[in-house]
Design the sequence.
């Protein structure tokens, strides 16, 4: 009962934080774009020849001559109503672009998040249990090498080996926007997902595995494990009973805190594999001055990272019985 | 639980009653440390320590903080850290106590009552920890036993589902004691079970150990609180700078303490509040100091020439043992 009240308070506070964060992020991004040499009209017309008259019309439409504050308020007012404008490069509403692209990215990120989390945790537990043996050294070396590997580089290697050389997977070739669901079979989509997801996972494993290993070693040298041993517990049973219990929570929290890196990795990986996700759209929007889309993506990515942090916080405050107790006693 | 107690009682009355359940002879313990670079140093923490624990008796091991008492307990259970080097002859129930046997019998024959709350898993509910790792088919039974033991120690049913941090100091003690009672161990090693307890809880805690001894267990009570030890023990081993200087019977502390054998023990007796309340000058030698003769030499008022040459041998006097040249 008390818990429910506290969780409601927690969520309320988080929502307020999110709103203020979004206001700031939107304003700053808007101003940055405003003062950068991006010309929305040029971006829209591209190489098309247009008459001066037409151009003036467009300028009025994009509000080139309205003062920035007013433009921001106009945009924000529309955004509040759910209208984020029309994407300049895709020429459909920004919300539609984001919906489609973000879904694709979400599949990619979820797959690699889960895979790297589980694999990393298992590797970390094994390494920690076998501390100092060759198996531990092998896992540690793997992690250090991966941690020092640039994302795009690993992506290129995988692409070269599996797509170009072995030919197992398609070489990128994004589906043009608008030709989705119906025309792309599940298998197509799945094949396209594997390599980028693998790249992200392999990289994500390092951090979580090293963390889990450290944490398990710490737990195994704790007084309570010593006492468990004194009471006759040993081997795998001991690790399962006390190790996993004490390592899981911090490891899961860390994995949620990794949402920002996950998003950053996705942008790079999507670029290399031409995976039609939000990261690729972000790069395109940036390079081709698609202001409305860029702002939309900024908002979505901020929400995404914020969501990960909020969950980490939630676990930290409401799942760990020790913290729960402290909160109550304050 | 009741019949468990009976069983130990029968065992205790068996043929070996007069023989020690646990014999520790010449225990030396050191730590390998890496000083600057690759230079290895050895830090001696315990040397030439001997004690014996008998069924139905409480042996108190009294020594000041940092003198290596916990390590002695851990050495008996075989749970020393990996950089520890142990050299000892140990016998349990007449048989040589090797690391394999320790691993086999700990938790069953030998139970540790640890020093602090940190020895409880912070994320596991109390009843699960106290029951420990058992086969599924025994779980129901063990749960019942655990409830009975808790009842006896006045731990209410809601304690079962608590986490360690929710317990008070006294409750923690009782929970830790319960873990030993749950096992049918015959040798109980209680490490520092009294600090932070008020008078009433302290006496209560001590009475648990008396109960265990009365049921036929051998109890080793490790403490720095000589007064608490005097209340319930049968024998008292005086632990000083990593070794035992004297094992005295509790009666030796009565009257004027004139039956005490070692100058250090006498000094301790003198320091008791009900006696002269006179602290001893000086401090224990550091672990890295190399001492050839008697370890108490620096602070001893009765020392003679012989004392700085070689460690004094153990002598049996008056039903106790002592490591001093100057006693008859
Ligand atoms: N792993 C280790 N490596 C090196 N030295 C150690 C190690 N563990 C313990 N020691 C040393 O051994 C000494 C004795 O430790 P121990 O915990 O047995 O003391 P104690 O008598 O139980 O003290 P307390 O009354 O504080 O519990 C300590 O001074 C400590 O410095
Ligand atoms: S051996 Fe000598 S120095 Fe040591 S306690 Fe006895 S009299 Fe004192
Ligand atoms: Mg101790």
Sequence:
């Amino acid at each position: 009962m008390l818990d429910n009240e506290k969780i409601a308070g927690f969520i309320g506070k988080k929502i307020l934080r999110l709103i203020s964060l979004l206001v700031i992020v939107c304003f700053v991004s808007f101003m940055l774009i405003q003062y950068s040499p991006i010309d929305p009209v040029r971006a829209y017309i591209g190489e098309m020849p247009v008459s001066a008259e037409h151009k003036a019309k467009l300028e009025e439409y994009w509000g080139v001559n309205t003062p920035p504050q007013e433009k921001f308020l106009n945009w924000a007012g529309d955004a509040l109503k759910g209208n984020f404008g029309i994407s300049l490069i895709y020429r459909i509403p920004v919300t539609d672009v984001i919906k489609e692209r973000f879904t694709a990215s979400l599949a990619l990120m979820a797959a690699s998040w889960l895979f790297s989390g589980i694999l990393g945790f298992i590797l970390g537990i094994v390494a920690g249990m076998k501390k100092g043996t060759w198996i531990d050294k092998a896992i540690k070396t793997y992690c250090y090498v991966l941690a020092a590997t640039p994302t795009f580089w690993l992506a290129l290697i995988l692409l070269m080996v599996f797509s170009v050389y072995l030919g197992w997977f398609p070489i990128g070739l994004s589906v043009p926007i608008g030709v989705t669901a119906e025309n792309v079979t599940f298998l197509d989509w799945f094949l396209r997902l594997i390599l980028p997801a693998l790249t992200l996972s392999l990289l994500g494993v390092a951090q979580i595995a090293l963390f889990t290993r450290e944490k398990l070693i710490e737990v195994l040298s704790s007084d309570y494990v010593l006492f468990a041993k004194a009471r006759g517990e040993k081997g795998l049973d001991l690790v399962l009973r006390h190790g996993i219990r004490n390592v899981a929570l911090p490891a899961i929290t860390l994995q949620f805190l990794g949402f920002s890196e996950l998003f950053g990795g996705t942008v790079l990986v999507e670029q290399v594999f031409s995976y039609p996700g939000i990261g690729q759209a972000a790069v395109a929007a940036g390079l081709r001055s698609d202001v409305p889309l860029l702002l939309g993506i900024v908002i979505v990515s901020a929400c995404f990272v914020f969501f990960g942090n909020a969950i980490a916080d939630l676990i930290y405050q409401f799942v760990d019985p020790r913290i729960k107790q402290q909160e109550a006693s304050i | 639980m009741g019949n468990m107690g009976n069983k130990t009682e029968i065992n205790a009355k068996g043929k070996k009653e007069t023989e020690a359940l646990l014999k520790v002879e010449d225990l030396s313990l050191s730590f390998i440390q890496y000083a600057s670079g690759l230079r290895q140093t050895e830090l001696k923490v315990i040397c030439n320590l001997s004690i014996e624990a008998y069924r139905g008796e409480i042996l108190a091991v009294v020594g000041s903080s940092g003198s290596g008492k916990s390590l002695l307990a851990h050495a008996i259970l075989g749970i020393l850290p990996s950089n520890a080097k142990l050299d000892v002859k140990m016998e349990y129930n007449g048989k040589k106590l090797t690391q394999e046997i320790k691993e086999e019998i700990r938790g069953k024959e030998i139970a540790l009552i640890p020093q602090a709350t940190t020895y409880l898993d912070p994320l596991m509910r109390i009843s699960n920890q106290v029951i420990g790792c058992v086969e599924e088919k025994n779980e129901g039974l063990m749960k019942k036993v655990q409830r009975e033991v808790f009842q006896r120690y006045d731990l209410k049913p809601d304690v079962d589902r608590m986490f360690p941090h929710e317990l008070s100091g006294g409750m923690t003690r009782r929970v830790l004691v319960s873990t030993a009672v749950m096992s049918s161990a015959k040798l109980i090693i209680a490490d520092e079970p009294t600090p932070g307890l008020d008078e009433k809880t302290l006496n209560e805690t001590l009475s648990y150990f008396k109960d265990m001894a009365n049921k036929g267990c051998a109890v080793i009570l490790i403490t720095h609180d000589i007064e608490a030890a005097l209340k319930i023990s049968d024998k008292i081993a005086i632990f000083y700078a990593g070794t035992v200087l004297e094992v005295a019977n509790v009666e030796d502390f009565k009257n004027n303490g004139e039956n005490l054998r070692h100058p250090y023990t006498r000094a301790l007796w003198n320091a008791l509040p009900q006696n002269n309340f006179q602290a001893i000058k000086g401090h224990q030698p550091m672990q890295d100091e190399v001492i050839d003769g008697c370890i108490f030499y620096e602070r001893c008022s009765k020392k003679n020439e012989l004392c700085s040459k070689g460690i004094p041998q153990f002598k049996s006097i008056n039903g106790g043992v002592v490591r001093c040249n100057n006693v008859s």
